[in-house]
Amino acid sequence: MLCSLGKEERKMKKFALLVLAGLLTVAFTAPAPAMEYEFGGYWRTRGYRNWNFTGNDFPSTEQNRHPDKNITWIDTRTRLYFTAVVNDNLKFVNKFEMDAVWGNDSSYGDIGADGVNFEIKNSYADFTVGCVNTKVGVQGGKFGRGFLFDDDFAGLRLSYEGESVSLPLTWMRAFDKDDSIKSWDKSRDVDYFAFSPSIRAGDSLTINPFGMYVFSNNASGWKPTEKYDNMEMFYAGLNLDADMGPLSIWATGIYQGGSVDLRADTSMSEDFKAWLGAAGMGVNVGVADLHGQFFYATGQDPEDEDNTKFWVPAGQSYYWSEIMGKGIFDEQVSDGSPGDKIGNIMAANLGTTIKPTERLEIALDGWYAKLAEEVTEGAEEGEDELGIEANLRLTYTVIKGLKLDLVGAYLWAGEAIYKGTDEADPYEVGTRLSLSF
């Protein structure tokens, strides 16, 4: 059931719109020599249909008890980018987003199109002093190819930029809550600290060792870490990228360690001992390429007292297949799959992208996936197969800058996806029209 916006939320939405209007007013009225401006954006409208994403095709009499995740969805997303270039060493960067689900009165997709759905994705100062670049505010970041982190955050990024080396240090305030009424509830916060140097070795090899430290004295106020009190986790990893003409290869390895105290009993603690490994390749043969990848992330060993499942509290995002891994249509994934939060899974891919004409691109991909550890409870107990998935995507350039995607995907579901008595394989079809400027 959709709820109407509260007074405070409506005020915040109106304030955000006023901020955007003010920035645009300044942009168009300020003296031309004083400042330069950069405008850009992205727009897309997509429509798609998902069938049987639970692995079930239940009779209508059972719909309320066992929803089958069949959805028909049409939405529009608009992103606008505005950067004020004060001088060569100082920028003020802003990114705004508006989402409309067609026919949904909680956005601007209903009759009248006057709903409020406005987001400030990024707003930060970007300045350089000497060889050190600094970004302060709400910004985006990516570590470990997205297997570790790929999201927006509020924080600070300092980076030394040399000719063949980059040394960025990032602090992210993941969660912060101060409650002055309940003394025991005060100062709940979670912080991420990341270091991700990049070293260019010659013309073909890039080496990127990285690490991230997650710390909190009282992590229980944040939903992803609500069962923990003191928390100290660390991630140590390495990215390798090699570009050798028609052949390109990459690899990523991450180890997760550290320990936490349990909120329910602070005398008890858990140790983290988990890891992730991934590798991929691509071969360009003219009008087509051959590409593939593999990743494995540990799951929870039921016989081990330590926490052995690879896990990141929030910010991890790695898209892969269309049905199991979100893909172009990312509203939901098939049951049993971790989606873009890579943990307790092994997956392998082989595919090709063919470009028969300048305007047309055809991508064919096959995926196999299974859980690293078997399901331990429920109707699928003892199972680990997620299935085999086939993806087809046609991309056509309608006019320069405007692309149309047609997508179809089918998953021959494994038994780790609950099927009950009405087994049915998940599949989807959809289309997307997009442009960027």
Structure description:
The protein is mostly beta strands. Helices cover 5% and strands 54% of the residues. The chain has 1 helix and 20 strands. The protein has a 20-stranded antiparallel β-sheet that branches. A hairpin with a 2-residue loop joins strand 18 (385-399) and strand 19. The longest helix has 23 residues, at 7-29. It is globular. The two termini are 37 Å apart. Mean pLDDT is 88; it is low at 1-5 and 60-66.
Order of helices and strands, N to C? Answer: HEEEEEEEEEEEEEEEEEEEE
Give the low-pLDDT segments.
1-5, 60-66
Structural class: mainly beta
Instruction: Provide the helix percentage.
Output: under 10%
- Rg from Cα: 24 Å
The shape is globular
Percentage of β-strand residues: over 45%
For the biggest sheet, the summary is:
20 strands, antiparallel
Distance between the termini: 37 Å
Question: Would you report the number of β strands?
Answer: 20
Mean pLDDT: 88
Instruction: Please count the helical segments.
Output: 1
Secondary-structure blueprint:
Layout: H1 7-29, E1 36-51, E2 71-87, E3 90-101, E4 118-129, E5 132-143, E6 149-161, E7 165-177, E8 188-195, E9 198-201, E10 205-216, E11 228-244, E12 247-262, E13 269-271, E14 274-284, E15 288-297, E16 345-354, E17 360-370, E18 385-399, E19 402-413, E20 427-436
Antiparallel strand pairs: 1-2, 1-20, 2-3, 3-4, 4-5, 5-6, 6-7, 7-8, 7-9, 8-10, 9-10, 10-11, 11-12, 12-13, 12-14, 14-15, 15-16, 16-17, 17-18, 18-19, 19-20
